[in-house]
From TrEMBL:
Stretch list, region Disordered: 1-59
Ranges where the Clp1 C-terminal domain occurs: 296-407
Domain Clp1 P-loop per the UniProt entry, residue ranges: 97-291
Compositionally biased intervals (Basic residues): 42-58
Signal peptide: none
Protein known as: Protein CLP1 homolog isoform X3
Domain of life: Eukaryota
Bias (Basic and acidic residues) ranges: 1-41
This protein's UniProt keywords: ATP-binding, Nucleotide-binding
InterPro entries recorded: Clp1/Grc3 (IPR045116), Clp1_C (IPR010655), Clp1_C_sf (IPR038238), CLP1_P (IPR032319), P-loop_NTPase (IPR027417)
Lineage of the organism: Eukaryota, Viridiplantae, Streptophyta, Embryophyta, Tracheophyta
Gene: LOC110781838
Length: 408
C-alpha cells in the first residue's frame, strides 16, 4: 500500500516536471521566434536605411553634376543665382557738375548705401584739386567695404594711385588724359579677375572741370566725355547744371546704355574761395603725413643725391628743328619724362615715389606714396625728406610736379 502511494507521488512529480519542461520549451521557442523576427526586422530596416542613403547620395551627385554642367564653378553659398548676378557688371555712376555743388558728398552717400547692402563698390576720385583718397594732384581708386564715417573719411587699404602733379588739368592736359586712361585700364584688369568687385560697380567723383571756363568749352567737355568712355559709365548724375545736362544728353544720345540724370544742387553746400581751397589742399597733405588727429608719426630721412632720381613729366621739344618743316617751331612734349637736377627748387615740394623700374615706365606706373622735401644741402649733396614710415623708399625714382606745401 505504501509502495503504491510512493509510486503515485513520484508519477505526479515526474508529470509536473514534464509539464514545466514543455512550458519552458514553448516559452523558449516563442522567444527565439520573436528574436528572429526582430533580427529580421532590424536587418530589413538597416537595408532600407542604406537604400535611402544611397538614393540621397545619388540625388546629391546628380544635382552636383547638373550644377557643374550648367554653371561650372559659379556655385557659391548654395545659390548659383548669386554668382550669376555677380558675373554681371554693376552700375558705374559718374558724378559731374561745377565746383561746390556737392559732388563729393553725393559720391560718399552712394558708396555708403552700397556698402550697407553688403557690396564693396570701388570709389574713383578724379578730383585733382582737392583729393578725397590721397593728396591733391593725384587720381586714385579704392574699394569701399564699410559705410564712410563723416569724420574719419574714407578708409584706405592699398589704394591705386596715379600721380599727376598739378591741381588743375590745364597744366598738362595730355598727361591728365593718360593718367585717367591708365587708372581705368588697371581697374578693368582687376575686375576681370574679381567678379565680386565688378558686380559691385563704382562711383566716380569728378572735379569742377576747368574753373571759370565753363562746360561749353570743347576742351572741358572732352575731358568729361573721356572719363565717361574710359570707365564705361552707364549713369551720369549732373548736379545743378541744366545746360551741361542738355549737352551731355545730346552728345551721348547715340549711347543707349548711358543714362543722363539731372539732380538739384545738394542742400547746405557753401561756395569756397580760392584761398580756402589752397588751405584745404595743405590740410590734405598734412593729413597724409600726420593723420586726421595727428595720430601718425612720419619719419625724417636723409638721402644722398646719387641715391635718388628725380623726374618731371612734360617739357623738352618733341623733335629737333632739323626734323620739322621750314618755319615750324618745336613744341614741348607734354608726356616726355625729363630728368631733374636736385637743387633748392625741390624745397617744400611733394614728390611721388613711383613703382616704375625705368624712367620710360613712369607714366604707366602707379605710385607707392609721397615724400615731403624739408631741406636740400647742395654742398654736402644731401636731401632731407619726410616720409610716412621709416626705412628706405620702395623706389629711388621720384616724380616732381608743381605740388608744394609749407609745413606750419
Amino acid at each position: 500500500m505504501e509502495k503504491q502511494r510512493t509510486e503515485k507521488i513520484l508519477k505526479k512529480i515526474m508529470e509536473k516536471k514534464r509539464t514545466e519542461k514543455r512550458r519552458t520549451e514553448k516559452i523558449s521557442k516563442k522567444n527565439r521566434k520573436e528574436n528572429g523576427e526582430e533580427q529580421r526586422s532590424s536587418r530589413k530596416n538597416k537595408k532600407l536605411k542604406e537604400k535611402i542613403e544611397k538614393r540621397k547620395k545619388k540625388r546629391e551627385i546628380e544635382r552636383e553634376i547638373e550644377h557643374t554642367w550648367k554653371f561650372e564653378n559659379f556655385r557659391r553659398d548654395g545659390g548659383w543665382w548669386l554668382e550669376q548676378i555677380r558675373q554681371q557688371q554693376g552700375p558705374r555712376v559718374i558724378v559731374v557738375g561745377p565746383t561746390d555743388c556737392g559732388k563729393s558728398a553725393l559720391s560718399r552717400m552712394l558708396l555708403s548705401w552700397a556698402a550697407k547692402q553688403g557690396w564693396k563698390p570701388t570709389f574713383v576720385d578724379l578730383d585733382i584739386g582737392q583729393g578725397s583718397i590721397t593728396v591733391p594732384g593725384s587720381i586714385a581708386a579704392t574699394p569701399i567695404e564699410m559705410p564712410i564715417d563723416p569724420v574719419e573719411g574714407i578708409p584706405l587699404e592699398m589704394p591705386l594711385v596715379y600721380f599727376y602733379g598739378h591741381t588743375t588739368p590745364t597744366a598738362n592736359v595730355d598727361l591728365y588724359k593718360l593718367a585717367v586712361k591708365e587708372l581705368a585700364q588697371t581697374l578693368e584688369k582687376q575686375f576681370s579677375g574679381n567678379s565680386e568687385s565688378r558686380a559691385a560697380g563704382m562711383v566716380i567723383n569728378t572735379m569742377g572741370w576747368i574753373e571759370g571756363v565753363g562746360y561749353e568749352n570743347p576742351f572741358s567737355l572732352q575731358l568729361l566725355l573721356q572719363a565717361i568712355d574710359m570707365f564705361n559709365a552707364d549713369v551720369v548724375l549732373v548736379l545743378g547744371q541744366e545746360k551741361l545736362c542738355s549737352m551731355l544728353k545730346d552728345v551721348l544720345k547715340s549711347k543707349t546704355k548711358v543714362d543722363v540724370v539731372k539732380l538739384q544742387k545738394s542742400g547746405g553746400v557753401v561756395s569756397r574761395t580760392q584761398k580756402y581751397r589752397q588751405k584745404s589742399r595743405g590740410y590734405r597733405i598734412r593729413e597724409y603725413f600726420y593723420g586726421l588727429a595727428n595720430d601718425l608719426s612720419p619719419h625724417s630721412n636723409i638721402a644722398n643725391f646719387n641715391d635718388l632720381s628725380v623726374y618731371r613729366i612734360g617739357g623738352g621739344p618733341q623733335a629737333p628743328r632739323s626734323a620739322l618743316p621750314i618755319g615750324a617751331e618745336p613744341a614741348a612734349d607734354p608726356t616726355r619724362v625729363v630728368p631733374v637736377n636736385i637743387s633748392q627748387d625741390l624745397l617744400h615740394g611733394v614728390l611721388a615715389v613711383s613703382f616704375a623700374k625705368d624712367p620710360e615706365d613712369i607714366i604707366s606706373s602707379n605710385v607707392a606714396g609721397f615724400i615731403y622735401v624739408t631741406d636740400v644741402d647742395v654742398q654736402r649733396r644731401k636731401l632731407t625728406y619726410l616720409a610716412p614710415s621709416a626705412g628706405e623708399l620702395p623706389s629711388k625714382i621720384l616724380i616732381l610736379g608743381t605740388l608744394a606745401w609749407v609745413e606750419t
